[in-house]
Amino acid sequence: MSNTSTFFNQSEELIVESSTLSFDYAPIDVSASIFEYVNYVFLPLSIVMGTVGNFLTIVVMRSERFAGSPSSYLLIVLAISDSVAILSQPFNKLFFIDLVGTDIRALHDINCKLYIMIRRLSKMTSSWTVVGLCIERFIAVWFPLKAKLLITKRSVSAFTLTVVAIIITYTGIWSYASKVVNGKCNPDVYNYTDPRERTKFGIMLQGGTAIYSNVPTVLLMILTTLIIIKLFQHRRKRRSLTQRPSSTSDQGGKITAMLIGIVIAYVILILPITVLHNTAYQKRVKAFTETSSGFSLFTEVVQLMEQLNYCLNFFLYIMTSRQFRETLFQILSSKCHCKRTTQLELPTDSKRTRY
């Protein structure tokens, strides 16, 4: 009897244990499959919306109304870097690799290094372009009399070229760890058991995350706070002097509101990817090829947030800038008017030819 009762107790424990395991892993598997289906819809949608929005931003910034502003060059650079980041994202996705039939990045180590460098360059340039916009607005708000002397096309071009040169140099050095392993392109290949290799990669990782998100986030938070404080002081002075606010101050406030929206979206959507890379380093796993359900799910969520950041700026411009909306509407309406005019002229030309 004791043996029988022991057998039943052990069997009950096995049943309880197996049910507990299935309960723990089922939600993770379901969530992973849900995000896989979300990628099928979100990735193509984000590519179309992001590239079209960034293209329209470039067209608006090259119009007569914005062409004279030095900040328009920064917005064009931001649109280009965001578009490159958006278009490079599908190559990270397994369903895209299955669709193409091969991992283009993994054809050779050179392909892998080049892809990682271009992707890092686009993302870091995007971050520092936002910093450049914030610096431009800070100078315009705090030093309005010196703004035209400090913010010029030459200074903006020098800032952009310096940032791009530094990023290319750093990403080129960091590309030593970008290699093809088991048919997959990995950005973090090194000997995890070698303390020297681990320390070397850790230093490069910390420097990369500092360039990409940590330092830009600190600068953006400080500069944006100072801009808001100065605008609040200006508004109090205007209210004490007159009851009617000036149109220039309203326009400056709208430009600042657009910048604040960009900064908030950047901080919320970009910081998680930095947490991902540092977590992968601490756990000694590869950031984008780890097979554990929990970590892969976290990777998918973080990549969705990062992809969303590069698609939002165009819509932030529309919501916060009246001049941007008016210029965009004029460009689109003029294009539609030209098409209607040509369509109306075509029948008369055909009739003349026929007669």
Structure in words:
With about 350 residues, this protein is an all-alpha fold. It is about 85% helix and about 0% strand. The protein has eleven helices and two strands, in the order H-H-H-H-H-H-H-E-E-H-H-H-H. It has helices at about 1-60, 65, 70-90, 95-100, 110-140, 145-150, 155-175, 195-240, 245-285, 295-320, 320-355; strands at about 180, 185. A two-stranded antiparallel sheet has the order 1-2. Helix 3 runs antiparallel to helix 10 (about 295-320) and helix 8 (about 195-240) runs antiparallel to helix 9. It is globular. The model is unreliable at about 1-30 and about 350-355 (pLDDT under 50).
Number of helices: 11
- SSE succession: HHHHHHHEEHHHH
- Secondary structural class: mainly alpha
Main beta sheet? 2 strands, antiparallel
Low-confidence stretches: 1-30, 348-355
Gross geometry? globular
Number of strands: 2
Strand fraction: under 5%
Q: Gap between N and C termini, in Å?
A: 110 Å
| Spatial sequence of strands, sheet with the most strands | 1-2
Helix content: over 70%
Mean of residue pLDDT? 76
State Rg: 27 Å
In brief, what are we looking at here?
This protein is an all-alpha fold. The protein has helices at 2-61, 64-67, 70-88, 94-100, 109-142, 147-150, 153-174, 195-241, 247-283, 293-320, 322-354, and strands at 179-181, 184-186.
